[in-house]
């Protein structure tokens, strides 16, 4: 009769293999969880030389009229994402933006971290801001940008449930930084932009009015057309890739 002798070495090998198996299962579950994470639209896959300018308006208002004038000079359309509380303080600027031909969209009502509030509060943030904008512009927003770029599946589901597309950006001007200069803002945007880019600015950043003319001139010289985000994105029959690029699903796929 043969006996199996289990030594400490055997036990160590078994334990090591067992732990490795458990870790592999945990990693697999993590990958599956991550793959189910929904993404907003960061940019759009397109062969057309089109880009979308966007401005977030949440706090100050010193430069809004200046930005409108600069955009008019370069015949550039832009999408402004405004906070409901900002609308309350500056309703005349909301109307001015709309009258100038720009689109005014939803940036929440009170600028919270959307992942830190429940579903009822999420909907209230969206609906209240929509109502305030529509009362002034006559147009109900269909685009939403989460404050701080902070979102989760529930945030995207809340927006989608009321017919809204959640929008991020793939080119960040970083115009809000203390270290930003007109030159650094211009360099960052013009070097990173590509077909289908969504560019992020802020309406009250110190150096944006100074940087914007050079950016618009440079991009126009490169052949880019400035379009509304609504005219850049696909509204149906699309998929969003792992990096947030929205792609049209071709027939037969």
Question: Care to describe what's here?
Answer:
Helix 2 runs parallel beside helix 8 (208-221), helix 5 packs across helix 6 and helix 7 runs parallel beside helix 8 (208-221). 43% of the residues lie in helices and 15% in strands. A hairpin with a 4-residue loop joins strand 10 and strand 11. With 253 residues, the chain is α/β, with parallel strands linked by helices. It contains nine helices and eleven strands. The radius of gyration is 24 Å and the shape is globular. The protein folds into two domains: 1-36; 43-248, Alpha-Beta Barrel (TIM Barrel). The strands form three sheets. Strands 2, 3, 4, 7, 8 and 9 form a six-stranded parallel β-sheet that branches. Strands 1-11-10 form a three-stranded mixed β-sheet, with no helix packed on it. Residues 9-34 have low confidence and may be disordered. The chain has helices at residues 8-35, 64-73, 84-89, 91-99, 119-137, 153-161, 182-192, 208-221, 229-232; strands at residues 43-44, 50-57, 78-82, 103-106, 143-144, 165-166, 171-172, 198-202, 225-226, 238-240, 245-248.
How would you summarize what this structure contains?
It is built from 9 helices and 11 strands.
The counted number of beta strands is 11
Mean pLDDT: 90
CATH topology of the largest domain: TIM Barrel
Order of helices and strands: HEEHEHHEHEHEEHEHEHEE
In DSSP terms (H or I, runs of 4 or more residues), the helix count works out at 9
Give the termini distance in whole angstroms: 64 Å
Low-confidence stretches: 9-34
Biggest sheet layout: 6 strands, parallel
The total tally of domains equals 2
Give Rg in angstroms: 24 Å
The CATH first-level class of the largest domain comes to Alpha Beta
Reported CATH architecture of the largest domain: Alpha-Beta Barrel
Protein structure class:
alpha/beta
The fraction of residues in strands falls at 15-25%
For CATH, the homologous superfamily of the largest domain is named as Glycoside hydrolase/deacetylase
How would you describe the shape? globular
Helix content: 40-55%
